[in-house]
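Sequence only, no structure available. Ideas?
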Amino acid sequence: MVRFDADLGEAAARLDELEAERLALGNTEHPKSRRLTQRVRLARLTVDAARARRESRGLHYSTDWPAGKGAHSVKAQTIPVL
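Reply:
I predicted one. Tokens follow.
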């Protein structure tokens, strides 16, 4: 997994748009609206956590922070076709 701060910023902006669109639809108590709310919140937490992380470790590599404290060297890895 490679993280880019710029891409994470775009993801955060798109989540803001999704939340605004959901609120504009009204009826926030509808089950589908609540599920969407939960999914957007989970995505927001994931993006915020990734943006806060300032290191590269194993498969979680950030081009913006390639050699953070305690970082491991990044090596090419492949996933075999199953």
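The chain is about 50% helix and 5% strand.
Hope that gets you unstuck.
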